[in-house]
């Protein structure tokens, strides 16, 4: 173990040996997401903290992924490790190893890198020999150099270019042309004519051109793969954060089990703050349920025994025991997620710029080189000359620069967006984003934070405020938390006999008087419009503490920026009309709809589409997933439900909404660069193709044209990063 | 020209060594965390005992 390794399996070896001596139980390997790790000092601090914990054999931080991998004895609980890290100031989350496995060993990336390295090695060596030939090596020396080049190039091309062979073969079998068909034809033709020329001790061999071509194209493929793999691994991390566990009640005992192990009829305990793992019926307990992720409603719903609950709802106040009626794929959560598959995807209608270019380019190149071959054959009646020129035409037109034009730009643009806190999941998302003229927002959880804020705190007198603060500080209910936040810094009254009545509120005794904070009818108050919690002190009239859903940071700025830049902004919500109207007015959105069902949302977007608009949908709830899929391009915040994140093209990592405007700007700039790149590549062809057709192209000219166009295109792509 | 008989194999051998080194480091996962490795080299923690 001399090499530094981030592979948990390698780390496990010494650890496994020590354990084998003392314990039959095998070690566990844990993965933690540590988003705040950013420097060398953080690495040592986190690793040392984890390693110092009893039972931990080794800990290793991966700074690129911001994860920590831990090898520990089976009795070590991951919650303890998270507490330890919190103690030294690092927020940590458990990651589900199963959901992560795909990125830990990214075989495809390694395979591409291996091919890229080999192609680079072969191209450099062959280029070295070619330079000697161009510099004037003659006769036997030139032939020797050509033969050595062939000996390096043939096996190297057979191995490194195999992804292109496979892809071209697949396209041909489906009777289609893709970008890889002319590439493969160029490689094969170059190799055949070069070997032939070498055997006849000719002057020109294209081994170096074929290898450089493969090298540049592989570089494009690698960039493309890396961008998407980075986004995929981060997206997987979000999925892995939701560790699928549930508390099962077996008689008097409870046990924590994986959700997949639950069966219909099992009793499941859901603690306050927990999410319903199954569909079912409440057996015991009273509480309130937050259904905002499923329906967009902000007001919690009262829950009592006998009532049905759906997976995905969040339990707020009291513990609930639920009898599972549907699990896993049968839950309403999953059924709603499946709606997405039915909704017509905006993506499938879109053809990427690279595909459109290939569609124009591939037949053009084939016709051109076939014409060159025919013309020269008729002119000279010499197959060798004609084939040489046809090969030169194919190599010079070959889409080196085209292969780099799109991936180089998307890599640079995705990197820039990642710095701003956005994760681009789809390869064509930026291109689609650049065409957008209409932005549709969801309300709850997207424009708003989904957590309430007290609006009339100042209207409470000091005594009542201190009582409310004292009552609220004992509860995890979102409205209580809002009161705690509003009264932060104030003095809490001294209460006795504090009791939380799940589903109703909190009561206590203050200076001999009974005090209550909670639901309207329980407190005995006149209901007011909107979200409110009621405070009653002794026999006084109850006071309504009004709450409203606070706007997400940057929401107001984003909406006004978007409107300024000429985008149409719409607001669709499943929430009640007055709540939606208030937000719409605050943000200045004229087109808003309330109490929309999921199907209505996606139909609304389709109607916009039919009217000729290109739509960006920003949403987080399960009720948005169909709309997210129907839109041309979609963004969801990281707090969204898994299904919504899967349905969207871009994930917003922070809480701030303002990167949405940046994304639209960067996307437009990126597409401008892609089109410039196409133009640069075409310009080179316009200059070089006549030379090739006229039979004036030498391998030296081909090498220069190819390298300069590829390098110009890459440099142009980097301009996306600069503001 | 006989010097080519030495120089060409020598250049191929040296290039091959580099290629072998690249494959070795690739197999040992040395490209998995470039950012972390760049930071680790500055820390004195592993000077005496390289971390496995």
TrEMBL record, chain A:
<dbReference type="InterPro" id="IPR023298">
    <property type="entry name" value="ATPase_P-typ_TM_dom_sf"/>
</dbReference>
<dbReference type="InterPro" id="IPR036412">
    <property type="entry name" value="HAD-like_sf"/>
</dbReference>
<keyword id="KW-0406">Ion transport</keyword>
<keyword id="KW-0547">Nucleotide-binding</keyword>
<dbReference type="InterPro" id="IPR008250">
    <property type="entry name" value="ATPase_P-typ_transduc_dom_A_sf"/>
</dbReference>
<feature type="transmembrane region" description="Helical">
    <location>
        <begin position="682"/>
        <end position="706"/>
    </location>
</feature>
<feature type="transmembrane region" description="Helical">
    <location>
        <begin position="177"/>
        <end position="199"/>
    </location>
</feature>
<dbReference type="GO" id="GO:0005507">
    <property type="term" value="F:copper ion binding"/>
</dbReference>
<dbReference type="GO" id="GO:0016887">
    <property type="term" value="F:ATP hydrolysis activity"/>
</dbReference>
<keyword id="KW-1003">Cell membrane</keyword>
<keyword id="KW-1133">Transmembrane helix</keyword>
<feature type="transmembrane region" description="Helical">
    <location>
        <begin position="385"/>
        <end position="413"/>
    </location>
</feature>
<feature type="transmembrane region" description="Helical">
    <location>
        <begin position="360"/>
        <end position="379"/>
    </location>
</feature>
<comment type="similarity">
    <text>Belongs to the cation transport ATPase (P-type) (TC 3.A.3) family. Type IB subfamily.</text>
</comment>
<keyword id="KW-1278">Translocase</keyword>
<dbReference type="InterPro" id="IPR006121">
    <property type="entry name" value="HMA_dom"/>
</dbReference>
<dbReference type="Pfam" id="PF00403">
    <property type="entry name" value="HMA"/>
</dbReference>
<dbReference type="GO" id="GO:0005524">
    <property type="term" value="F:ATP binding"/>
</dbReference>
<dbReference type="InterPro" id="IPR023299">
    <property type="entry name" value="ATPase_P-typ_cyto_dom_N"/>
</dbReference>
<keyword id="KW-0378">Hydrolase</keyword>
<feature type="transmembrane region" description="Helical">
    <location>
        <begin position="205"/>
        <end position="223"/>
    </location>
</feature>
<feature type="domain" description="HMA">
    <location>
        <begin position="28"/>
        <end position="93"/>
    </location>
</feature>
Automatic annotation (TrEMBL), chain B:
<feature type="region of interest" description="Disordered">
    <location>
        <begin position="31"/>
        <end position="52"/>
    </location>
</feature>
<keyword id="KW-0472">Membrane</keyword>
<dbReference type="InterPro" id="IPR004714">
    <property type="entry name" value="Cyt_oxidase_maturation_cbb3"/>
</dbReference>
<keyword id="KW-0812">Transmembrane</keyword>
<feature type="transmembrane region" description="Helical">
    <location>
        <begin position="6"/>
        <end position="26"/>
    </location>
</feature>
<keyword id="KW-1133">Transmembrane helix</keyword>
<protein>
    <submittedName>
        <fullName>Cytochrome oxidase maturation protein, cbb3-type</fullName>
    </submittedName>
</protein>
<dbReference type="Pfam" id="PF03597">
    <property type="entry name" value="FixS"/>
</dbReference>
């Amino acid at each position: 173990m001399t090499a530094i390794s981030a592979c948990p399996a390698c780390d496990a070896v010494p650890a496994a040996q020590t354990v084998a001596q003392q314990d039959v139980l095998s070690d566990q390997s844990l993965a933690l997401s540590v988003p705040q790790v950013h420097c060398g000092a953080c690495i040592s601090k986190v690793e040392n903290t984890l390693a110092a914990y009893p039972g931990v054999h080794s800990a290793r931080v991966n700074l690129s992924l911001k994860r920590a991998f831990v090898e520990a004895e089976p009795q070590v609980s991951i919650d303890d490790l998270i507490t330890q890290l919190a103690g030294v100031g690092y927020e940590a989350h458990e990651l589900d190893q199963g959901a992560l496995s795909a990125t830990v060993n990214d075989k495809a990336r390694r395979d591409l890198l291996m091919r890229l390295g080999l192609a680079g090695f072969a191209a450099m060596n062959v280029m070295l020999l070619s330079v000697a030939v161009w510099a004037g090596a003659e006769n036997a020396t030139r032939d020797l150099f050509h033969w050595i080049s062939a000996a390096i190039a043939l096996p190297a091309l057979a191995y490194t270019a195999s992804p292109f062979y496979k892809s071209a073969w697949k396209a041909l079998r489906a009777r289609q042309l893709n970008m890889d068909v002319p590439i493969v034809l160029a490689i094969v033709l170059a190799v055949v004519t070069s070997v032939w020329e070498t055997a006849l001790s000719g002057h020109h061999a294209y081994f170096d051109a074929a290898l450089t071509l493969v090298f540049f194209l592989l570089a494009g493929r690698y960039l493309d793969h890396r961008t998407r793999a980075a986004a995929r691994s981060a997206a997987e991390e979000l999925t892995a954060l939701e560790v699928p566990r549930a508390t099962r009640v077996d008689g008097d005992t409870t046990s924590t089990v994986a959700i997949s192990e639950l069966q219909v009829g099992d009793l499941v305990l859901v603690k306050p703050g927990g999410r319903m793992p199954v569909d079912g019926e409440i057996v015991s307990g009273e509480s309130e349920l937050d259904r905002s992720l499923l329906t967009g409603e902000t007001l919690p719903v009262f829950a009592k025994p006998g009532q049905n609950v759906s997976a995905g709802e969040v339990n707020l106040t009291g513990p609930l025991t639920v009898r599972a009626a549907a699990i896993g794929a049968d839950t309403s959560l999953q059924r709603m997620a499946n709606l997405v598959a039915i909704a017509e995807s905006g993506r499938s209608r879109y053809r990427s710029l690279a595909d459109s270019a290939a569609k124009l380019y591939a037949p053009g190149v084939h016709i051109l080189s076939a014409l060159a071959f025919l013309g020269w054959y008729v002119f000279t009646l010499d197959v060798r000359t004609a084939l040489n020129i046809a090969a030169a035409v194919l190599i010079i037109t070959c889409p080196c620069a085209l292969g780099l034009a799109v991936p180089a730009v998307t890599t640079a643009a995705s990197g820039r967006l990642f710095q701003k806190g956005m994760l681009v999941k789809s390869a064509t998302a930026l291109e689609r984003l650049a065409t957008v003229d209409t932005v549709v927002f969801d309300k709850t959880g997207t424009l708003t934070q989904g957590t309430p804020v007290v609006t009339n705190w100042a209207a409470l007198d000091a005594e009542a405020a201190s009582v409310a603060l004292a009552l609220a500080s004992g509860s995890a209910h979102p409205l209580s938390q809002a009161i705690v936040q509003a009264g932060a810094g104030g003095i809490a009254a001294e209460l006795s006999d504090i009791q939380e009545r799940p589903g109703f509120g909190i009561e206590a005794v203050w200076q001999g008087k009974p005090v209550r904070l909670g639901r309207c009818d329980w407190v005995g108050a006149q209901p007011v419009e909107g979200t409110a919690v009621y405070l009653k002190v002794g026999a006084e009239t109850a006071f309504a503490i009004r709450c409203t859903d606070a706007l997400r940071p940057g929401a107001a700025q984003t909406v006004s920026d978007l409107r300024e830049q000429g985008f149409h902004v719409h607001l669709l919500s499943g929430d009640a009309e007055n709540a939606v109207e208030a937000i719409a007015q605050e943000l200045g959105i004229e087109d808003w709809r309330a109490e929309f069902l999921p199907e209505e949302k996606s139909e609304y977007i389709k109607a916009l589409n039919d009217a000729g608009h290109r739509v960006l949908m920003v949403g987080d709830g399960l009720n948005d997933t169909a709309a997210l899929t129907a839109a041309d391009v979609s963004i969801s915040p990281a707090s969204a439900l898994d299904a919504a994140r899967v349905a969207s093209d871009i994930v917003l990592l922070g809480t701030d909404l303002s990167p949405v405007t940046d994304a639209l700007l960067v996307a437009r700039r990126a597409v401008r660069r892609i089109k410039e790149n196409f133009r640069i590549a075409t310009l080179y062809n316009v200059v070089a193709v006549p030379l090739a057709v006229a039979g004036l192209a030498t391998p030296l000219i081909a090498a220069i044209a190819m390298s300069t166009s590829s390098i110009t295109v890459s440099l142009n792509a980097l301009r996306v990063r600069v503001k | 020209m006989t010097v080519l008989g030495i120089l060409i194999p020598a250049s191929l051998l040296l290039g091959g060594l580099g290629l072998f080194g690249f494959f070795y480091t690739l197999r040992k996962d040395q490209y998995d965390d470039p950012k972390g490795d760049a930071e680790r080299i500055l820390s004195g923690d592993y000077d005496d005992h390289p971390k496995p």
